[in-house]
Design a protein that fits this description.
Layout: E1 8-10, E2 14-17, H1 19-38, H2 45-64, H3 70-80
Antiparallel strand pairs: 1-2
Helix pairs in contact: 1-2, 1-3, 2-3
């Protein structure tokens, strides 16, 4: 089976998210990371890699639960990682 272009893949080349959802997730990750950096979050290189992975995994978890809006994915991922509540800015 050949995956659709841009699909996020899991085991055995079975797409977990279609390309449109993968695009939303990518936008959410970029926006969440930018918000953390803009808020002054400072990480060592090792911590940065770990935190980027945690943000990505949180966004995947939220998408698996059905969230498809970029803004909600950003707000919830940041909040659920303990940086801010979903109804206020990270900064």
């Amino acid at each position: 089976m050949v995956p659709a272009h841009g699909a996020i893949m899991m085991r055995q080349d079975v797409p977990l998210f279609d390309p449109a959802v993968a695009d939303v997730m990518g936008l959410a990750f970029d926006a969440a990371w930018s918000r953390l950096v803009a808020a002054g979050q400072v990480f060592s290189p090792h911590q940065e890699d770990d935190m980027r992975e945690k943000v990505a995994l949180k966004i995947v978890e939220l998408a698996r639960r059905g969230e498809r809006e970029v803004v909600r994915l950003v707000e919830l991922s940041i909040a659920e990682l303990g940086f801010a509540s979903p109804d206020r800015k990270c900064a």
